Amino acid sequence: MLAGQTKTIVISGLSGFLGAALFWFLSAAPLARAEDPGLLSTGELRLTDDTGRTRLLLTLVRSKPRLFMLDNQGEYRLEMGLGESGEPHIWLRDADGASKVQVALTAKGLPSFTLADQKGRERAVVALSQTGEPTLIMRDPQGKDRVALWRDKNGEGLALANEKGKATVALSAPDGGEPTLTYFKDGKALRSYK
Question: Which end of the chain has less neighbouring CB within 10 Å, N or C?
Fold first, then answer.
């Protein structure tokens, strides 16, 4: 009889010890939910309409935050997020989900505004150079630069290029100087006129 009571006492003591250890471990472990009752922590947030369709999605893409707004057909129409280096981007998409407008800051903090055609090819880019000077580039459907308009520390310029992307004519207007018109062949200057 005494041996049975000893077993019961040992098992009860061991159970109590294990229960206390388990309680200590669970109370010391970080909680899966936020401690602040006004804070929601999740890996993805979806806002749905009355029919249950997702209309807004806040998620992580390659560990970077991304916000998507969806239309009635479920296509992403607006996307905002951070690029690989943490630079911000905004994409405006057509009804097929193809990006048509992109507004971004480069990794160096320079703004860029890009327009794409119906096939998603970049056709026009407005950006600032390292020194903060504006540039406009227009491209053909093959992606070749065909028109460039710029302003830099020396003045303004306009260049036209052929289907190979090589300059054919350029007009430059340096600050305080005479404008120059230059003709090119195969990307090399042939003659200039002031």
Answer: N
